[in-house]
Amino acid sequence: MKNKELKILLVASIALNLAFFSGLGIKKFLNRDKKQETVLNFRIDLDIHQNQKNHLNTIIKQFRLHLIKSKQDILEKRIEIIEELSDPEVDFGVLKTKTQELNKYENQMNNTFVETLININNLLDEKQRLSFLLKLSQNWFFMEETADGK
Asked: CA within 20 to 30 Å of 26's CA: 36, 57, 71, 72, which one?
């Protein structure tokens, strides 16, 4: 009887911890999206035409929708991995499969990101493209532009 009660407490504890960490993850996820909006606001500096701006907004909206779905899939897969690890009798085959599925979701998200960059790149003229790539590089590599523009 005591073992059964301990198992129930363990499962309840794990469930509450997962709920707590999921809530933190979602909060962090929502705040990260707000940060991404500010990163994407540099498109105004590209001196784009209204038609380009409309196409750019469509491309970014489609990417963001895909990003939300991808992040949710990744979060769910991470939770499944944690749940498997919390099992006293961990099945390493299942764990390996879940990790491979997680990697697949992350790769899909990265591929979608690169496809989005290609679509944006195709939309811009040469001068806009150079400005875009400069801003993108600054964001990716945490470079700050100095007062003299270097």
From this structure: 57
